[in-house]
Amino acid sequence: MRHLCTFIALSLLLSITLFGQSENAVISDADIARLPIPVQRYLRYTKTIGKPFVTWVELTQSGQMKLKPDAEWIPLHAKQWYRVPEVAFEWQGWVKAAPLFHVRATDFYDNGVGSLKIRLWGFIPLGTAEGSEVSEGELMRYLSEIIWFPPAMLGENIAWEAVNDTLARATITDGGLEVSGDFHFDPDGRLTAFTAIRYADMGDGEFRLADWYAPVSEYADFNGWYLPSKGSAVWLFEEGDYEYIRLKIESISLK
């Protein structure tokens, strides 16, 4: 909760600071001209042209999570907040691990530092993951999720490379960290997946680099934005694929 209060306070301050500069600013074709063609198509597909630049994003999610490759799927609901163009987010997800055991997971990233904290009933600590591998992983997560707030694709902290007509590679730099990932599109500009090589937490403090795949399956209208509404995330381990989360966006607000 302390993280969240500080996060919201800083976000409001940033929004107030930037408001006078961007009050009347909307995204134009000229703004996106420097981006790779498939990214330009995506910005048009999501109806971003003519929309304002954003500094704050809030969304709610429902879905399922699998805690281990051989575990059963369990229900999940979550809320998430982002700051833009400053790179920061907090995600709070709730799962019912057993009839009387409700667990809250908090993913956090701000200024080059990321963490994952697990608490029983929201306040009894069960575990924490921190360190350089976690921070890089959380920055990668932010990069993969800018699909929900497309104006962030115009950020000066993201360098784009056109790989081909339906694939663009992005490198994001923040807080002394740098990660890269690939955005996959169809010919109409619809994003179909994000892929990257990312650190996987294998438990007991062990991390290893592995292929990470986040496909998008559906889109929906959110107050005039046409954005991905369903997707999942999969670790592509040598010993087999591990799909660990399936999400549906219930609501999203871009301000």
Mean pLDDT across all residues, rounded? 91
CATH overall fold name: outer membrane lipoprotein receptor (LolB), chain A
* Number of helical elements: 4
Cα shape: globular
Contiguous low-pLDDT stretches (5 residues minimum) are: 7-22
- By CATH, the architecture is named Clam
Order of helices and strands: HHHEEEEEEHEEEEEEE
How many domains comprise the coordinates?
A: 1
Largest sheet: 13 strands, antiparallel
Counting DSSP E segments of at least 2 residues, the number of strands comes to 13
Structural class: alpha+beta
Spatial separation of the terminal alpha carbons: 22 Å
The fraction of residues assigned to DSSP E strands is: over 45%
What is the CATH class name?
Answer: Mainly Beta
Spatial strand sequence of the major β-sheet: 6-5-4-3-2-1-13-12-11-10-9-8-7
Percentage of residues in helical conformation: 10-25%
Please summarize what this structure is.
The chain contains four helices and 13 strands. The chain has helices at residues 2-22, 29-32, 37-45, 132-145, and strands at residues 56-65, 74-83, 88-98, 101-110, 113-120, 124-129, 158-164, 167-174, 177-185, 191-203, 206-222, 225-237, 240-254. The protein is globular.
Description:
This protein is an alpha+beta fold. It has helices spanning 2-22, 29-32, 37-45, 132-145, and strands spanning 56-65, 74-83, 88-98, 101-110, 113-120, 124-129, 158-164, 167-174, 177-185, 191-203, 206-222, 225-237, 240-254. The chain has a 13-stranded antiparallel beta sheet, with helices on both faces. Strand 7 and strand 8 form a beta hairpin. The longest helix has 21 residues, at 2-22. The radius of gyration is 18 Å and the shape is globular. The model is unreliable at 7-22 (pLDDT under 50).
